[in-house]
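Predict the 3D structure for this chain.
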Amino acid sequence: MPYALLIFVLGLILSAVVAGTHHFPAFKIWQPTIFVPNWISFKVGALDAGLGQIPLTTLNSIVAVSFLSADLLPQIPTPSVTSIGMSVALMNLVGGWFGAMPVCHGSGGLAAQYRFGARSGTSIILLGLFKVILGLIFGETLVGLLREYPKGLLGVMVFAAGLELAKVGENLNYGARDLWEVSEVRSSGFGNYDQEAPKRQRELSDEERTERWTVMFMTIGGMLAFKNDGVGFVAGMLCYGVYQSSKICAGWKGWRSRMDKRNQRGTTFGEEEQLLVDN
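Done. Predicted structure below.
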């Protein structure tokens, strides 16, 4: 049984004790209601709040989920960024008409589920079915109980997610998937190649390790200072761009130096040849 499901049930029991009979849920089948937003609601939700949410959703709920799932569960096929983005879009496009809050996948939720024992999609399916059944049976009467849900248990989930995300950051220079490269392509004969070629981890120099750590901490610093994932993303990209521009400048200077030496050698050889002709 997934640990997250056990904690969820424990939280419901504790919240029922705290809330008492006044907020205790009653048997009431949920009846869907269609909500059509007016212009003011659309402006506040889509333009004022939605546009600012796009960078956070794109990075944390789509890109980070795809990369984190590949790091945590390498033996399972990784969902693409496109498929995750389509999933988030469909959930919000459908749920919004029924008064649902904006939903997403989230790398923090994935890290928390993995930390509490989830190793396949079965655990998430069980947890989702449990929540759907509760919502269908008790309907809106469950809201009062959920408001009394212990914040401490939610803090445990967030703390567990942070630990798991920190462990992934610890492997930035050792074991990260962008460091694994195909060592060679093995042929099985008749022009056919094996689907899985052997891989080896690329060794990083001290300069490269420092660069990767600096880019990561610049991203984290921007996120924490401005409380905005978009700012952290821009800060990390700018830091990465500075490193790359310095490498390009160093390569260009090296190329100019080699060209100057080659031209100098060519000039010296031409002068010697001219002296031989004159003599």
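The mean pLDDT is 77.
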